[in-house]
Amino acid sequence: MTAPRLETDLDAITHNTRWLVNQLAQRGIGVTGVAKATLGSPHVALAMIRGGVRGLGDSRLENLERIRLTAPRTPLTLVRSPMRSQVDSVVREADCSLNTEPTVLDALSSAAVRGDTSHAVVLMVELGDLREGVASQDVVEMASTVTTRPGLHLVGLGTNLACRSGVIPDQAKMDELSSLVERVEARVGYDLRVVSGGNSANLDWALSTTNTGRINDLRLGESILLGTEPLHRRPIRGLRYDAFTLVAEVIELKTKPAQPWGKRAQSAFGDQPTTSGTGSVRQAIIALGRQDVDPDGLQPPNGMRVLSASSDHLVIDVGDHDVGVGDDVTFRMNYSALLRAMTSPFVRNCEHGTTPHDISSTSSNPEFTKRAA
Ligand SMILES: *Cc1c(COP(=O)(O)O)cnc(C)c1O
């Protein structure tokens, strides 16, 4: 088998989706599955659909296009504010987008009219994390102008916390969103269908609150894919953490001194590495580097330790492990490592699990590479 490769267990993704969908359904909240860390993998999208998501979201139109071919009936949302330069593709590829800018909304409206289609809009509200969002005092006015634009319909409000500044989506923030929903409804004269409270960072709140207010949707990526919540990166009990494994190959194994020798300056990536320890280290070089994965997000097997990483070489202390040149070493990954491995052209993507019967192009081939897809 080629290396490096990223093994995906699709059944783990279905399990995680179903568990979260069931827990949240008891609280009146549906799930929009976000597949962006998997390059919009159609198999991952189908695994989420099998798990019961009400729709799928992605930050990239290219990914939505791939998903659309596989799941033509699933509602698709573009979760990053559209670029004004791409509005024609947005209304073609996405049923809905999250928005904050009047000029983009104007352009989306014209594109929808041109394309003889209609496009759903969720307005994003700034609640303190300082990434995307309209200031809360401007939301009612802006919502009302969206309803006057041909080709668009305002379906809801949303917010996104914890991504830029780590601001926690707590009861106060969610109550603020709910009360804005009521003010917008009073102004526009109809009920908002979508109130999207946030991402995986909202799960602590959503699974413990006794009052979800008007929140009826969460956009979940990391929790479904990795089984973790992003506020403290703790595993969520009930979920599987083994959906993804990165496998890479040892190309050198030698016992070397712990300390380098010679006069020292910067290393390849500009840092002045501190090397600790004395004596010698059983050191393996793995054919894996920053072009393949974020090395800071790699978790090697117990008893092994990552020592350094450059573009193409990962140096690890293998301890007493019985590994040799040509052997595979497997790693768990955090979100950042997963994202880079999925988007690296050097990492082969191998997806396993219940064979999806509704993917026509790949149904006979449960493994495929992103280059071939
Ligand atoms: C990525 C993203 C999500 C999903 O976030 P997770 O932390 O992976 O659950 C939700 N909403 C928006 C706007 C995003 O960009």
From TrEMBL:
Q: Which CDD domains match?
A: PLPDE_III_AR_like_1 (cd06815)
Cofactor annotation? pyridoxal 5'-phosphate
Q: Matching Pfam families, A to Z? A: Ala_racemase_N (PF01168)
Locate the compositionally biased regions of type Polar residues. 357-367
Tell me which residues make up the Alanine racemase N-terminal domain: 9-222
Renumbered to this chain, the signal peptide range is none
One function term, GO molecular function aspect:
alanine racemase activity
GO cellular component terms, semicolon-separated = cytosol
Keyword annotations from UniProtKB, A to Z: Isomerase, Pyridoxal phosphate
Note down the stretches annotated as region Disordered.
353-373
Name assigned to this protein: Alanine/ornithine racemase family PLP-dependent enzyme
This chain's source organism reads Nesterenkonia salmonea
Classification lineage: Bacteria, Bacillati, Actinomycetota, Actinomycetes, Micrococcales
